[in-house]
Amino acid sequence: MWNGYPVVDADGHVIEPGNLWEEYVDPAFREACLRVERDPSDGDRLLIDGRPSRLIRRLGGVPYDPDEPIVDWNTLERAEYAPFRESCPPASYDGDARVRWLDAEGIEATLLFPSLGLIWPREVDCASPYAVAHLRAYNRWMADFASAAPDRLVPVGQLALSPEAPFPQEVAALAATGFRHVMLPHGVTVLDARLDPFWAAAQDHGMVIHLHKVAVPHLLPLPLPTSVRAPGTGAFFNHVNEILPGQLFLAGLLDARVPDRFPDLRFAFHECNIGWLPAWLERAQESFETLRETGRDTPDHPPRHYLYDRDAFFFSTGLGERLDRLPEELRSRVLLATDFPHPGTPFRPREEWDPVLAAFPEDLRRALLGENALRILDK
After folding, report:
1. Percent of the chain with pLDDT over 90
2. pLDDT per position as a tens digit, 13-25
3. Which of residues 352 and 143 earns the better pLDDT score?
4. pLDDT at residue 229 in the model
5. Strands across the sheet with 35-37, in order?
6. Is 15 exposed, middle or buried (0-12, 13-18, 19+ CB in 10 A)?
7. I need a labelling partner for 307 at 20 to 30 A (CA). Which of 77, 78, 112, 332 fits?
């Protein structure tokens, strides 16, 4: 509790331990499974099918210190680098340690997303048996992690767009092991009929669908391998535009009439912010009216209906946004997110959030801290 309000962290992360896949992957994939290779001279490496990851530069480097901010391993310059395991907070890979961290920070519950699992699937064929086996292994490990406190550690499952893993069976298997939250499947590049079995299965099992910025396709009709995060542009350009996939995918969901065809689905966007939503809604409303007047296809309802009148869309946020400017109609859509234990995130969230929250109206504080998140946790 913070100032009498229950607190839910809507975007927390685990850091997958290096031995996860060797212990949890199906035996047929064990020899070539993901693993961490020790390299004291340049930092440990993630191996994918025996090859170093192209996207994950370094794992570990400096021993974790709970009294210091979390270090970005990629920017370290050291004569010798500490092992990956020693560099990770115990709360990132041990369920009991995570519960102790929640207690220390006064947090009631946390949604838990992967770290390495947001990145390595971009380096493999997500339709392959290899990818499917590794995502299933992660889900098994995550279920064990969350078993330390099932009412407080809320796992978000991972799936792949693959003929090897039909959505009805995969979603049912997740539900049978206690998952009620799932990420958008890896490998999605368009919103077409291939996803309908996923939407239907998620709706049938009461799953909340989570869209994390790193794993959300931008859906722009650009030639591959063009991306929103394009080579040749600087850190400022990339950081500013990291929220674009969330905006684009929201428009895509409405355009594909997913909320109309599957009305019981709920969606949570993470690390895409929410401050852009009022201006986006104005443009979306204008587009809706213009297209309706010319007889073009549109969603069944005006865009504001999906954000104001339905309890279907949520957006997590961090410390950087001016939430006091958020219209009252959208306060029921916002979720608090720590992003712990990633670099640059609050390693003592309550201490850093308290002065920010003090400036907010009471209804916004209550909604942000836990009232909204408890609805998607069905509590």
Report:
1. 79
2. 999 999 999 999 9
3. 143
4. 61
5. 35-37, 45-48, 51-52
6. buried
7. 112
Q: Residue 227: what pLDDT?
A: 58
Average pLDDT for residues 34-62, to the nearest whole number? 96
Token pair for residue 231?
């080579």
Task: pLDDT band for 307, please (50, 70, 90 cuts).
Answer: very high
Which residue type is seen at 248? L
- pLDDT tens digits for range 343-367: 988 878 998 888 888 889 999 999 9
Of 258, 239, 309, the residue nearest 281 (C-alpha): 309
Handedness of CA 26, 29, 34, 39 (dihedral sign): positive
What's the rounded Cα separation, in Å, for the pair 229 and 233? Answer: 8
Exposed, middle or buried by CB within 10 Å (0-12, 13-18, 19+), for 290?
A: exposed
DSSP class of residue 221 equals: -
Q: Who contacts 61 (Cβ-Cβ below 8 Å, separation ≥6)?
A: 43, 71, 73, 76, 78, 81, 82, 87
| Residue 39, token pair as written in the block | 């390299």
Count the neighbouring beta carbons within 10 Å of the beta carbon of residue 65: 11
Tens digits of residue pLDDT in 249-269: 999 999 999 999 999 999 999
- Which residues contact residue 291 at a Cβ distance below 8 angstroms, ignoring those fewer than 6 apart? 297, 298
pLDDT(219) > 90: no
Establish whether the linkage from the previous residue to 197 is cis, with ω within 30° of 0: no
C-alpha–C-alpha distance, residues 276 and 282, integer Å: 10
Residue spans of the domains in the chain: they are 8-31+89-376
Give me the DSSP letters along 128-153. Answer: SHHHHHHHHHHHHHHHHHHTT-TTTE
What CATH superfamily classification does 8-31+89-376 receive?
Metal-dependent hydrolases (3.20.20.140)
Q: Phi and psi dihedrals of 290, rounded to 5?
A: -65, -45
- Quote the pLDDT of residue 225: 53
Work out the number of other CB atoms within 10 angstroms of the CB of residue 79.
Answer: 6
Give the count of alpha carbons within 13 A of 128, CB side only.
11
Name the pLDDT band for 7 (thresholds 50, 70, 90). very high
